[in-house]
Amino acid sequence: MAENYRQIKARIRALEAQAEQLRRHELRQVVAEMRQKIRDYGLTPEQLFGPNLSDLVRYRHPETGETWNGMGRPPNWIKGKDRGPFRVD
Q1: Which InterPro entries match (predicted)?
Q2: 3-state class of 51 per DSSP?
Q3: Are 62 and 86 in contact (CB under 8 A)?
């Protein structure tokens, strides 16, 4: 006999719960392995993830001191202007 909608939905929920349980179990193993490799090789966060772009300052408003890293929408104080004078070297 073919399953009905409710039966299939119940089976999906059960499988999703089982998948989440397996994910959590495997995640513990993956994190432990990663932590061991980080210790073995002496890796730093910068080596793993690159520089923190929020800390990167490329442009600074000379009067207010506001900064912008050049990513995303430009702030009003630099929008549509020549960026050269605002560039931080």
Answers
A1: H-NS_C_dom (IPR027444)
A2: coil
A3: yes
